[in-house]
Amino acid sequence: MGLGGFTTIRAQLFTLFFTIILLFLVEEDRKGKGWALWAWLPVYLIWLNLHGGFLVGVVLLAVYISERFFMDFFAEKNFLKSLQMVKRQILFLMATCLLTLITPYGTDYFPYIWNAVTLDRTPFIPEWRPLWAINWADLLAWIFSIGLVLYCKTQKNLRQMPGLFIIAATAWVSLWHYRHLSIYAVAWMCYTPAYVENTYLGNLINKVCKQNSRLLTAIFVIIGISGTLYAVRHQFWQLRIPTTAEDSKEGVPVYPAGAVSYLKDNQFSGNLMVPFDAGAYVSWKLYPEVKVSMDSRFEVAYPVQAVRENIMFYAAQEGWQKTLTKYKTDAILVPRWRKLDQVMGKNDVWISNGNSPRWTRVYQDDGYSLYLRSDLAKRLPITDMRGKPISAHFP
Length: 395
Hints:
Strand 1, helix 15 and strand 2 (290-292) form a beta-alpha-beta unit. This protein folds into 2 domains: 3-198, no CATH class; 245-384. The protein is globular. It is α/β, with parallel strands linked by helices. It has helices at residues 3-6, 12-30, 35-48, 54-76, 79-85, 87-99, 109-118, 136-155, 164-176, 181-196, 200-211, 213-233, 245-248, 257-265, 279-286, 304-314, 321-326, 339-344, 374-377, and strands at 270-273, 290-292, 331-335, 349-351, 358-364, 368-373, 383-384. Strands 1, 2, 3, 4, 5, 6 and 7 form a 7-stranded mixed β-sheet that branches.
C-alpha cells in the first residue's frame, strides 16, 4: 500500500517521514512523557516549511486528542472531566495552528491552503481518484489490512489498541484518494503489529517462527541474495529515463529527452506548449531559452482553468484549436500516446482552423512528436528518431 509514496522521489516523502515522527511523539505523550509534544512544535515548524502535507500533522494530532478524549469519556462518563484530561494536548494543538503563520507567506498562506484542500483534483490527476478507480490489487490489500485490524478488535478492547482512531481516519481518506494510501500504510505499519501481538494469530505466528527459525532464516537469505543479483543484473546504479510510448503503458512518467536534446542542439528559443507532466523536465533542461505552458505544480503556479485547457488540448477535445490562438505559441510538444498526436500526425504539415498558423512536424521519436510554426520550422532540420535509442540522464 505504500508503493505510491515510497517508490517516487518527491516532496511527499517529507510528509511520510514527519508522519512517522508524529506517531512516535503522540505515543510517547500517551505514556506521559512531557517532552514529546514540546518536541513536536519544532518538528512541525520544519514540516510546515517543507511540504503542504503538514496538514496531515495537524489533523492526526487532532484525531489523537479526540481518541484520548473519547477513551476518557467512555471510562469516566463525565464530559468536563474528560475535557480537562486532554486540556494540555488541546493547548499544543492550538500552538500548532498558530505556528502555521510562520512561513514566508504569513496570513496569505491560509486562503491558498483552503483553496488547495477544497479543489477537486480528480479530473486532472489520476492518483487523487478513489482507490477502487485506480487498482483492484491496492483495494484488495486495503480490505485485507482493515480485516486484520477488525480481527484484532475481536481479541482486544479499545484501550489495548491505541492509535485506532488514526488508523480509521487515514483508512477513510485513502479509500477516497489513492494519493493518501501511503499515509495510511505508514499508520497501519506503525500500529498493527502491536495489535496482532497476544492474539491467537499473533501467538501462532510467533510459534511458527520459533519452531522454524532456521528454515525462515534460509528463506530470507535466499530472497536477499536473489534480490541483490536481480538488482545487479539490471544495473540499479544507472538511472534510466523512460522515453517511449510503450513506457507510458507501465504507468511511469515518460520524458521528452529526445525532443529536448533536439531543441537544445538547434538552439531553439521561444514558447513551447507542453503537457501537464512534461513541463518540469523541459524547464529543468532548457530554461531560460524555452518557456513552457504548463508543469505539474498545478494550482501552486497555474490557474485551474489553464490546467483544464491543457488537458482538453492534448485530448483534442472540441475547441482545442482555440488554445493555440489564445496563447503565444512557437512550438508544440505532443506525446505519441495522446489523441492530439493522431490528429496532428496525419500530415507532416498541419493547418489549423481560423487565423492560426501552419504547423510542421520537425521531430519525432518513439515517445514524442515536436511541431513548430511553419515559419520557424524552415530554420530547423527534419529529424526522425523512431526505433532509435534515446540517450538521456538526470540532472
